[in-house]
Design a protein that fits this description.
Helix content of chain A: under 10%
Number of strands of chain A: 11
Number of helices of chain A: 0
Shape of chain A: globular
Mean pLDDT of chain A: 93
Strand content of chain A: over 45%
Order of helices and strands of chain A: EEEEEEEEEEE
Oligomer: heterodimer
Largest sheet of chain A: 7 strands, mixed
Structural class of chain A: mainly beta
Number of strands of chain B: 11
Largest sheet of chain B: 6 strands, mixed
Shape of chain B: globular
Low-confidence stretches of chain A: none
Order of helices and strands of chain B: EEEEEEEEEEE
Largest interface: A-B, 24 and 25 residues
Chain lengths: ~110, ~110
């Protein structure tokens, strides 16, 4: 059974650009959540999607957005990138939410 | 607002010794999670603790949950080098949701 797949693995952008990250959950999982990991702030919840609907959102500015497609794949978008957006972005999936989460390998975003 | 605190944040120990990592959380939470992260890798789920008094064991690791004290512990027995990693606890911020609040992580180094 394939795990959670995130693409791309690494990304380098410059300030002001926008970026889209992709996450394919484990087959059959309908809940996808996103987390940002930085050395200073640790792991922080971004948002959660279930059946194409955003169910919960963390305390991030509106530049951070996401969506989920009918096949449960999810994307997150960050517009007008800032240096502080440099982080490891992790996607996690579960069957319906609120059970064991399975994390992907993450996308390492560097903003120059 | 739910806050999760781990201690210690850094732990260096010798092989064969026992030690405990503590995880305190500030408000009621129905579930407590423990994850392991190796350098440059994603998060690996270790335990999900669902109720007061829950105890789970896997190999040399044992986790417990005391919801009244809002405390979870991860006990390491007869440590081996392969257990060197960063360990995170996380509590569920909203019942039934994937919105987890993570502790700062405990970087565990086991020396031969």
């Amino acid at each position: 059974k394939a795990g959670v797949t995130q693409t791309p693995r690494y990304l380098i952008k410059t300030r002001g650009q926008q970026v889209t990250l992709s996450c394919s959950p484990i087959s059959g999982h309908r809940s996808v959540s996103w987390y940002q990991q930085t050395p200073g702030q640790g792991l922080q919840f971004l948002f959660e999607y279930f059946s194409e609907t955003q169910r919960n959102k963390g305390n991030f500015p509106g530049r951070f957005s996401g969506r989920q497609f009918s096949n449960s794949r999810s994307e997150m978008n960050v517009s007008t990138l800032e240096l502080g957006d440099s982080a490891l972005y992790l996607c996690a999936s579960s069957l319906q939410g609120s059970e064991k989460l399975f994390f992907g390998s993450g996308t390492q975003l560097s903003v120059l | 607002e739910l806050k999760v605190e781990q201690n210690p944040l850094f732990l260096s120990m010798q092989e064969g010794k026992n030690y405990t990592i503590y995880c305190n959380y500030s408000t009621t939470s129905d579930r407590l999670y423990w994850y392991r992260q190796d350098p440059g890798k994603s998060l690996e789920s270790l335990f999900v603790l669902l109720s007061n008094g829950a105890v789970k064991q896997e190999g040399r690791l044992m986790a417990s949950l005391d919801t009244k004290a809002r405390l979870s512990t991860l006990h390491i027995t007869a440590a081996v080098h392969d257990l060197s990693a960063t360990y995170f606890c996380a509590a569920e911020a909203i019942q039934g949701a994937q919105k987890l609040v993570f502790g700062q992580g405990t970087r565990l180094t086991i020396n031969p």
